[in-house]
Design a protein that fits this description.
One of its GO terms (molecular function) is hydrolase activity. Helices cover about 35% and strands about 20% of the residues.
Length: about 170
C-alpha cells in the first residue's frame, strides 16, 4: 500500500513581487506548521517529496517538514509550478517504485483538481464531505491510500483516508 499526500501551499503575502517569488505570510508559516504537526499525528513519514520550486511552496514544505520532524530533502520542481492536474499526475507517476509515501506540495487549482480526480469514492464519506465542503484552501492536506505502482496511479484509483486544513 502506498500513501500520497496532496498539499496546497500555505497563505502567501499579497505583495507586489512576481507571483513565483511571493513568500508566506506570517499566518501561512503557522498554518504550515499546524499541517506538519497534524501529519505527524497521523503517522505520516514520507520517503520522498515533490515540491513546486516557487518561494511559497518551498517555505510551506520547510515549515511542514520541521513541524512534523521529517529530515528529508525534497525534489523541487519548477514544472509543478505551472502544471495542470494531468501534468502533476504525470510527475507523481515518475516516483521511484521503492517510495511508499510521497508528499506533493503545489498550487491551486491544480492540487484541488488532483485530489478530486484521484478519489475513488471508497473512503470515509465524512472525510470526503469535508474536502468537498471546505474546497481546497491554503494549507489543505489530503491523504490518499493507493494499492499499486506509482506508474499506474490514475483517476479514481486512490482512496481518500484523511483531510485537514492547517490553521495554526
Amino acid at each position: 500500500m502506498r500513501t500520497l499526500v496532496v498539499v496546497r501551499h500555505s497563505k502567501a503575502e499579497q505583495s507586489g513581487t512576481p507571483d513565483f517569488e511571493r513568500h508566506l505570510a506570517e499566518r501561512g508559516h503557522g498554518d504550515a506548521a499546524d499541517a506538519g504537526r497534524w501529519l505527524a499525528t497521523q503517522g505520516i513519514g514520507p520517503d520522498a517529496a515533490l515540491v513546486s520550486s516557487s518561494v511559497r511552496t518551498v517555505e510551506t514544505w520547510t515549515d511542514i517538514a520541521e513541524a512534523a520532524g521529517w529530515d528529508l530533502e525534497a525534489d523541487f520542481d519548477r514544472g509543478l509550478y505551472s502544471a495542470g492536474p494531468e501534468t502533476a499526475l504525470d510527475l507523481v507517476r515518475l516516483t521511484p517504485p521503492e517510495t511508499t509515501t510521497l508528499v506533493v506540495v503545489g498550487h491551486n487549482p491544480t492540487m484541488a483538481s488532483l485530489a478530486q480526480m484521484l478519489d475513488d469514492g471508497e473512503g470515509d464519506p465524512e472525510v470526503a464531505g469535508r474536502m468537498n465542503e471546505d474546497g481546497f484552501p491554503t494549507s489543505a492536506v489530503a491523504v490518499f491510500a493507493f494499492d499499486g505502482e506509482w506508474a499506474d496511479l490514475d483517476m479514481g484509483t486512490a482512496t481518500l483516508v484523511a483531510f485537514h486544513v492547517g490553521r495554526g
